[in-house]
Amino acid sequence: MQLKTKLVLSLSALTCAIVLILSTLFVSELLRQRIEQTVAANDVLSHEVLLMTRQAVEAGLRAQPPIDRSDEALHAAVTDALRSNTALADVMNAVVRYSPTVQDVSVTDAHGTILLSTDPDALDQQASFRTSLSSVRDGGIAYQTRQVFGKPRVFDSSQTLVRNGQPFLIVHVGVLSTFLRNSYAPWLKAALLFAGLAGLASIIAAGLLANLALFPIEQISQRLEHLTLAEGLATPLLPGTRPKTNDAVVRVTRTIDRLGQQIRSTEAGYSALQANLNQMLDTLRDGVLLFTADHRSIMVSDAVAYFLNLPEDSKQDMVGLRIEEIFHPETALGAAVLEAFASGRTVNAETVTLEDGRQVQITLDRIDDGLAGTGSLGTLLTLRDTESALQLGQELEVSRRLAAIGKLTAGVGHEVKNPINAMVVHLELLRAKIAAAGNGACEGAQRHVDILAGEMQRLDRVVQTLADFSRPMELHLHEHDLRQVVAAVIELMGVELAENNVHILVENPHEIVPVRIDAELIRQALLNLLLNAMQAMPSGGDLSITIKKDQHFAMVQIADTGEGIPPELLPRIFELYFTTKSTGSGIGLATTYRILQMHGGAMDVLSNSDPASPQRGTTFTLRMPLTTGIANDPRKVVTAASNRN
Known about the structure:
- By secondary structure, this protein is α+β, with helices and mostly antiparallel strands.
- The chain has 4 domains: about 5-200, Beta-Lactamase (2-Layer Sandwich); about 275-385, Beta-Lactamase, CATH 3.30.450; about 390-470; about 480-640, Heat Shock Protein 90, CATH 3.30.565.10.
- The protein is about 55% helix and about 20% strand.
- The chain is built from 17 helices and 17 strands.
- The protein has helices at about 5-65, 70-85, 85-100, 135-140, 140-150, 175-230, 250-285, 305-310, 315-320, 325, 330-345, 385-435, 445-470, 480-500, 520-535, 590-600, 635-640, and strands at about 100-110, 115, 130, 155-165, 165-175, 285-290, 295-300, 345-355, 360-365, 380-385, 480, 500-505, 515, 540-550, 555-560, 600-610, 615-625.
- The strands form 4 sheets. A 5-stranded mixed beta sheet has the order 2-1-5-4-3.
- Strand 8 (about 345-355) and strand 9 (about 360-365) form a beta hairpin.
- The protein is elongated.
């Protein structure tokens, strides 16, 4: 069965059910109204009989009073008065004769004894129990239907004559359910016929409307099929062949599924492209802004906040703003950018000096679609800090030098180690022969042998140092709080620093600083810097350690108040074996720099060696990437280890 047929049948069945419910409510409401009319009419008749009963009792008691004041005499007098009053009997008989639903009318005393009735055989008999017609009126539709259309029964409509606050006489009007059913039959048949015709008409109308409502699906199906054929998502049918199904709804569903799959694939590709773009912008040091043709920003990199001296999390606040709302003409950068936009020209690396002395290069590129006369689609603005570019170049140069040294030492250490071992062996043999000779003339030769042995040992230590520096390091990356890693190093060095009169000042942020690092190697790097700082302050001093976040990097600044490094020596401090200390090995800073590189970080240094300057001292700044949801991912550890081999 086709889905269209199922929908038509379902709508028809639903319409039939609704009509059936409404018809039932309609018929039940009519029945309730008819019963209320019957109850009201019989109440009028019972009131009329009650009035005639009162008049008959009053007239009879005046004409023939009771023989004494006893209840029995009063009862006998009232009975005679009722039965002798022809007007009352005529009214009661008229009610039975002319009312289509009344079976009998009777008058009983307070104890239920029938004193007067249209049925002569019921006189002086005890009245039987009858269901009150008012209870039928107040009942539900099911109860009313059961009482009226069930087995024949007589309902009672009664009125009470009260004497001294107590029931004295009761008028009963008996209503036969058969009479009610016969009186209700004509309108009931008409109501059922109307409901049936309405249900049939509604079912036919529902079927027609369902077909009309589903007709546009055929057109939608054809258009979607043309669309899928145009997009290459479906193959056209061969001449003379039919589709697998004639159900338009099924064809529309399948076509929409194919289009939805294409949309999901496109969306996945776009999401991946957007994620890559966001990652590139987040790690880019240059400030990048993309504006629409009406100069409204649609893309802003994190580094823009650095150039505007804004908080790091203000990137989202700038998206959607006009260029005048981002760059203010009162500032040097804002004036230069607004002037470049207003001129409509392309700007290539134009340098602007900011209020704080920084120099920023502005690059402005217009974006168009290549069609003549269409105008610009948007503008790409790039901000570059020349100092950061210079610093990056220096870091690349240091990295290049360290890489070259690593390659060189790996070969030199292997080639020199074996000859040294052979020389040491032969030198020991020569020393043994000189000792065996025991000749005093060989004392000078023994002294030269000792000198050669000492120099060979020193050369062996140098070669071993080369081998250690060039040996690959095994990273064991885990997520750590950088504050705790620094605290462990300070605790390790605390006693030695205190003995050398070095006062430590630590500045920690309140929030956690998560980094994914090899904690042992980072502690070694920090230990090297603390030892250098302590040795730079032989008479003691202040050592401040500051931990903070800078965009997507964690930073550790180690500043001492020592002698400082002369400007001419700063470019060489990360070179292997370069040292200004008589007892230094010259590999500490090079190793520290290498450890930072292996973690995807960097290190820079600022130093003031002027003895008269209050800012004399050296500040090392270590940068490491903050974690971005890659904790406990073993693949990252494997990748880091494999990149070293």
